[in-house]
């Protein structure tokens, strides 16, 4: 225990925990207030296939703060997995994102939507019901165009319970992505067993692969394994043209990152597709010389 290490340590350690707890409380209050005042919204970030088609928009939660402007989970992320809030926020995000997808399809767009699921909501006994009821927002849009992003760490947690939930989700016809792959040390055998169509390689490795041989190795071997297992791969955190080319050289992968598009409000998506969406067609292919 902390005392055994001497008073010095304990006195540093305890306040640090208190600070973290206070911050979590503040985050929670911020999210509750924002929900009540209608200040929660979603940004959307495109995911583009290897041949340049816009496959999906990932929904990313934001709060419109009167003082601080539009803020993201870096500020209030702790609240997203708070036991008392995870389900409330999770249901709101699901309903909002699916309604938005229905609106886009009414305007003739054909891409899908990806929704981040908090581990706490995933393991709530009402999760599958929550997903099923949100599906009513879709109208005629095919259910398979809705992808749920489950973090690798959550997928590795209570494996039995998670397996049952993912099976039920697959039965409803949704698709499943493993988010932040590589962070949770999932074995490749486990990847083989997971009912996930998509693997998203964590951006820390993607960014690291330019300077670290180890990170490069992790990305290359994860991509190779996922390709052999027939999974779709998304390379996250593609921040510049150079990373784009390196990522494309890994094989048939989809791309997501600031270099392609920053997350944007729903209203900006149609204009982005108009002005920039087509730019991602006819990009240099993987077989083109890199250097
Ligand atoms: P994530 O699902 O891995 O989402 C990717 C994050 O990376 C997003 O941050 C996105 O804005 C950011 N990003 C995208 N491209 C780049 C890039 O090229 N460079 C860099 N540096 N960053 C990039 P954001 O929106 O702050 O979200 C952070 C995390 O919060 C998400 O990570 C996800 O785990 C969680 N999150 C976001 N929205 C939701 C939500 O609606 N529900 C839940 N439960 N979690 C959410
Ligand atoms: Mg995600
Ligand atoms: Mg991710
Ligand atoms: Mg991440």
Automatic annotation (TrEMBL):
Domain EAL spans what residues?
24-277
Query: Domain of life, per the record?
Result: Bacteria
Protein's name according to its UniProt entry? Diguanylate cyclase DosC
Source organism per UniProt: Acidimicrobium ferrooxidans (strain DSM 10331 / JCM 15462 / NBRC 103882 / ICP)
Taxonomic lineage of the native organism? Bacteria, Bacillati, Actinomycetota, Acidimicrobiia, Acidimicrobiales
| Covered range of the whole protein | 523 to 813 of 935
